[in-house]
Amino acid sequence: MSQGDFPARRPQGAAFAIAAGLAAVAGVLLWDAAGLKQDGGYAGVGPADVPRLVAYGLLLLSGFTVIAGLRGELPQPPRQAPAPVLWILGGLGLQLVLLHPVGFVPASALLFAMTARGFGQKPLWRNIAVGLVLALAVYAVFDRLLKLNLPGGPLEQLIFQG
Amino acid sequence: MESFNLLLQGLATALQPMILLYALVGVTLGTAVGVLPGIGPALTVALLLPVTYGLDPAGSIIMFAGIYYGGMYGGSTTSILLNTPGESASIVTAIEGNRMARAGRAGPALATAAIGSFVAGLIATLLLAFLAPQVVKLALTLGPREYFALMVLAFVTVSATFGDSALRGLTSLFIGLALACVGIDGLSGAARLTFDVPQLMDGIETTTLAVALFALGEALAVAAMITPPDALHRVTGSVKMTASDWQRSWKAWLRGTFIGFPIGSMPAGGADVASFLSYAVEKKLAKHPEEFGHGAIEGVAGPEAANNAAAAGTLVPLLTLGLPTTATAAIMLAGFQQFGLQPGPLLFVMNAELVWGLIAALLVANVMLVVLNLPLIGLWIRLLTIPRPWLYAGIMVFATLGCIGLNPSPVELGMLILFGIMGYGLRLYGYPVAPVVVGLILGPMAEQQLRRALAIAQGDWTTLVSTPVAAILLLISALFLLVPIVLRFAGRGQVLSAVAGDSD
To answer: What is the pTM of this model?
Structure first.
């Protein structure tokens, strides 16, 4: 990756956030390990031990990330455009919500349309039309032909008779 | 001679019409994804895992291997014409190849890449066939502690040795290891980190994680980028290589092959490392070193041969030890497991027909690939003209399709989205993605071997270094971890970061 390779020599907020996240994951691992019935058998090592080891590793890495952050060693990401990311995440969220109520084809058509919109393709209605055609083709091939079980809704039933 | 006979029998399997069809689909898809920037072989295999669930195991695995080989071929096309590597092992090809394209010599650059890939693929696959039975014999003498040491070595090389920061590589690896803890513990049956969510009992699906990190994370990162990509170079002039091109290429092909294969077959990084080393060697040996940086054909021929040879080499530890050393190999391992097959020494005994069919099919696939890539190159270039909005919108639909096909539950899709956001974050701050996937797949295997070794030794931790093989492997791991850190500290880290692979 070529972007963002000029380290900024000042404390970086992002590094502290990452370090906190790693420490939090380690905390969850340790908390879960504490609740496990420890039965090591002959090995003396039970189901809780490897998660603990991983947690210690994460804590160590979290500490080093803080140091790297203080010394400004994390690469500074280039400026990001937030709008496209929101379009794509919106599309994914809509698909998640709509998948079961309305079926695979409309939900995926919307995801397609909103991703294309995120990449700058307008107008949205045309993206939806293209998405519908693609999603129908995908449904026909994968659900009908390859027997993958994709959730169907009214539209799929109308076209493929169930 | 034994290998030779088995290979001939394998060829009989590989030449069955259905198997040929699977191989053809694999190499075609592989070339396509190699050509398209943004999706690599690892993602494609991950996407196809749920789709192939009901299909023939041998055919599906041959198809996956075809995708891996095809990706190595196709990646060079994008590197040469677009200066954006189609997959990570073609980064080096972009240096000289794109210069050649700018000088109007795109044709010979594409040709030397394709023929070099063919030569390397052929030799390396034959080496695989003759080396694998030897490694199997060796593997049968290894116990749990040796396997554990091997896995530690793979962890270190995948995460910390190359790339520009051991800290970030190891962080990625440990995120993968933490995710690997989720689910029912294979040895005791205890439910770990499931938070009473039934979907988490089976652990985190490799497909979901890989698709999220490679497809969603990549799409988000590309969408959020503000700079537009490079323009496409047209292929002008002849595709034919001149006599002097041939003369300069053939030695580079052979050198690339013999650099790539050993690197791929040791747990020491994947194809990207091999192609970089080959480039350095060609630069050193060149009669006209001043041409490097301005379109030297050796700089395309060597690395392209090396990355294909390394792809074949990766199959040695994967098939004989069950040890994946790249993200693509890790996902292929998941593919084997989906069909109830466990790669490793026993696979050569229990499923000899499948293994030798696979190796023979790779030889056939190699021939298919050179046909697909030389005369039909114009077709693949047309793929590069698909507008990016449609391309990525399509990738998103297929990415979610793989996840929905696997398990049409909102929980699975929700995890996909969460991991996708994580993948975007990883890319943003320069954390490598491959170690997360390798950690998820190799983590439980390493844990199992560790606990088995300790059970045999009744809890004595010194058992881990009590045989020479295990001790030496752990020592090498420690060196691979520490030497790069020292090198970076001494300000000599550029070499290592230049080898940084980013997805495959």
So the answer is: 0.89
